[in-house]
Structures are given as structure tokens and as C-alpha cells.
Amino acid sequence: MMAARLLASTLLAAAALLPGWTAAASPAAAGDAGQQALAAYQAAHGDSGRLRQALALADQALREAPGDTGLRLLRADIQTGLRQYTQALADYRQLPDAGLAAERKMLQCMLRERVQPAPLPLDCYAEASRRFAAGQAAPGRDPNYVMALLLARDPQGPRLAAELLAATPAGPQREINAMLFQDFDRNRYLRSVLP
């Protein structure tokens, strides 16, 4: 469970609007309301009351700048933090798919699966894996790429997971990879990322 959360935080840390997250656009385009929403989200640290306040600010900012991609992603992140997965997915669906980074695409896939488990969004995960692989000389060393393959039920997934485990030196990362990839359980992983 802890390892899945760590991979999820790695995945999300690369994709969201927290420091280090990358978005297609900054909520700064929405002015003060967007900046206030971002600051409130960053200060919330998972507190549901503060997340609801951040959501109200994000809603206000989106009324002022409905086309702001960064704000839409921010609101989706806040809704995900509040476990409002259907609403978060609705925000993702309003964004151009081609503009989503690999990490964002993967989160969108997980939201789809969490909201509507059948049929599995295997094509979505396959697209996320292609985005993770793009521009990488050795994508098999990227745990997010390997996880996307496993979730896509790609035949390479189990082999690459085993190779990743074997290639990871002893230490915390090896323990994390072992917890994630040994005896991989799709439902356990998904519920650990999106409870």
C-alpha cells in the first residue's frame, strides 16, 4: 500500500500543479483567483475543509477564465484530493487529450477506471505508456512506464517489471519497486492511489 502511494506521488508529483508539477498552462492567466486557488490547494495538505475552500476558489477562477487549462487541471487535482473522482474526470474530459503529459494521461486513465471499472480503459493506459516511452532511451527503467504497461495488460509489462526489479540496486527504491511489482494486484494498486 505504501509503495503504491509512493509511486502515485512520484507519478502525480510530475504532473500536478504543486511545486514540480507541470501543467499545460499556469493558473496565473486567471489572475488573483487562480493564484489564490493554487495557494489554497498547496496549503491544504490533504485537509478536506481546506480542499473545499481551494475548490471554491478554483470554481470562481474558472468562471473568470473558463478556458484556462492550468485551472481546469488544478480543479481536477482538488477534486481528486476530495475523492470526487467523477467531477475530476469531467474536468479532464474538457481538455484536449493530445496536450496531456504522460503522468496526466495516466491519472486520467486511473480516474476512468475508478469511476467506471468496466470495461477497463486498456487503450487509455496503452496511450499513457506510449507517452512515457516517448523520448526515453530506456523506458523500461521508468516505474511509471512499467506500471502503465501492467495496467494496459501489455504482454511486455510482467517481463519489464521483473527486469526493473532485478536491475534496481538494494535500497529504498528496490523495496518500493518490489512492493509495487511483485505479485502485482491491479485493484489494490488503483485503490491505493485513488481510495
Describe the structure.
By secondary structure, the chain is mainly α. It has two domains: 32-95; 100-194, no CATH class. The protein has helices at 2-13, 32-44, 48-64, 69-81, 85-93, 102-115, 122-133, 143-151, 156-167, 172-181, 186-193. Helix 1 crosses helix 11 (186-193). It is elongated, with a radius of gyration of 17 Å. The N and C termini lie close together (11 Å). This is Secreted protein. Residues 1-24 form the signal peptide. Keywords: Signal.
Distinctive features:
signal; 195 residues; elongated; TPR-like_helical_dom_sf; Secreted protein; 11 helices; mainly alpha
Helix and strand run:
HHHHHHHHHHH
Q: Tell me the total number of β-strands.
A: 0
Rg of Cα set: 17 Å
Fraction of residues in β-strands: under 5%
**What is the overall silhouette?**
elongated
Low-confidence stretches: 1-25
What's the number of structural domains? 2
Helicity range of the residues? 55-70%
Mean pLDDT: 86
Described by strand count, sense and barrel closure, the largest sheet is: none
State the oligomer: single chain
Number of helices: 11
Q: Give the end-to-end Cα distance, rounded to a whole number of Å.
A: 11 Å
**SSE class:** mainly alpha
Sequence-ordered SSE layout with sheet pairings:
Layout: H1 2-13, H2 32-44, H3 48-64, H4 69-81, H5 85-93, H6 102-115, H7 122-133, H8 143-151, H9 156-167, H10 172-181, H11 186-193
Helix pairs in contact: 1-10, 1-11, 2-3, 3-4, 4-5, 5-6, 6-7, 7-8, 8-9, 9-10
Can you summarize this structure?
The protein has about 200 residues and is mostly helical. It has 11 helices and no strands. Mean pLDDT is about 85; it is low at about 1-25.
